Amino acid sequence: MLEFAILGLLQQAPMHGYELRKQLAQVLGGLRSISYGSLYPALRRMQAAGLITTDEPAPRALLPADAPPLTGRRGKVVYTITADGKERFHELVSETGPEAYDDGGLFGVRLAFFRHTAQDARLRILEGRRRTVERQREGLRSSLSRTRERLDRYTLELQRHGLESVDREVRWLSELIDSERREASEPGTARREASGTSGAAALPDPPDGDPPGTT
């Protein structure tokens, strides 16, 4: 998840570590807190793999007070995606198997970079995520029907709340899928995809109180 998100952000523009951390917090939302202790080892691994490269620190540009002393506090190292990194990112955004949607956290990150994903791949990922959540919903319904009589009212309400959250996500995913299919049927979509312009339809608002992929 972290490698995918870093490559996706650097695909848009070079960034130094502090800015990357801020942008990652926005992309991941409440799904994960990114510390320098997890970010910089990931950046070092990606640099060793040739996926990213660094520029020399800007003279006299100080790092934030809470940043680790990786540059001797002389300045900010700027990270840039390489050709190999772009190829790796293209491989990742092209994946449409269960690894792209079964994990709710990774699905949320994939959704954040859907503008870089081909339209047919977007549809397969959305449909796969909907199938996953529908299975979760059936499991919750089955559990609720089996245990209803044995639960106190607070636990019962908690299970009902979980079921309602999953129901909302299924409806939200269905709206996304319908939007993608309408977009695919519009003239000019193929030309936009070929030219690299995002063909993503306007995204419906996510379910209230439930960030994408948190079920």
From TrEMBL:
Give positions of region: Disordered: 178-215
Top-rank taxon, per record:
Bacteria
What residue spans carry the Pro residues bias annotation? 204-215
Compositional bias, Basic and acidic residues, is annotated for 178-194
> Which parts pass through the membrane?
none
Ranges for the Transcription regulator PadR N-terminal domain? 6-90
List the Pfam families hit by this protein, alphabetically. PadR
InterPro entries recorded for this chain? Metal_resp_DNA-bind_regulator (IPR052509), Tscrpt_reg_PadR_N (IPR005149), WH-like_DNA-bd_sf (IPR036388), WH_DNA-bd_sf (IPR036390)
PANTHER family in the cross-refs: CONSERVED PROTEIN (PTHR33169:SF26), PADR-FAMILY TRANSCRIPTIONAL REGULATOR (PTHR33169)
Q: What name does the UniProt record give this protein?
A: Transcriptional regulator, PadR family
* Organism name: Blastococcus saxobsidens (strain DD2)
